[in-house]
């Protein structure tokens, strides 16, 4: 993409950033990895070197742009020849895909539960704060109501 013999222009750098961002996020899809492997890309030394080059996306100033951080995990796995050989198998890709979906479901459920608990604790905490701020220890109805929820 660079000019012949010269540095990249700002537009070329922006375009390269966008292309690499899109490509690296595609690595979060095990079926895409299977596609690449079946077409021989993962055996190509130049492509493997490109995957090694893309490791800079793990740095915080780049990782913050990723919508699918799972791609970094697969980028790490793609550094190993054994994984590159195994992902050719469609059953392997299907298994990884299934595990990924289960992880997301579990994570989503657990995250929702934690957020609900935090919100509940926040509500209860507000009630306790108002009781403590009352000064005379008298119970105002909000504390009982929020703690009983």
UniProtKB/TrEMBL annotation:
A Gene Ontology biological process noted in the UniProt record is: regulation of DNA-templated transcription
Grouped into one coarse class, the protein's main location is nucleus
Q: An example Gene Ontology cellular component term from the record?
A: mediator complex
Question: Where is the stretch described as Disordered?
Answer: 125-149
Localization (cell): Nucleus
- Which keywords label this protein? Activator, Nucleus, Transcription, Transcription regulation
Q: Which InterPro entries match?
A: Med31_sf, Mediator_Med31
The keyword Transcription belongs to this UniProt entry's keyword annotation: yes
Q: Does the keyword Ribonucleoprotein apply?
A: no
Gene Ontology terms for molecular function: transcription coregulator activity
The similarity comment for this entry is: Belongs to the Mediator complex subunit 31 family.
How is this protein organized at the quaternary level? Component of the Mediator complex.
According to its UniProt entry, what is the function of this protein? Component of the Mediator complex, a coactivator involved in the regulated transcription of nearly all RNA polymerase II-dependent genes. Mediator functions as a bridge to convey information from gene-specific regulatory proteins to the basal RNA polymerase II transcription machinery. Mediator is recruited to promoters by direct interactions with regulatory proteins and serves as a scaffold for the assembly of a functional preinitiation complex with RNA polymerase II and the general transcription factors.
Q: What is this protein called?
A: Mediator of RNA polymerase II transcription subunit 31
Source organism (scientific name): Diaphorina citri (Asian citrus psyllid)
Quick one: which gene encodes this? LOC103507820
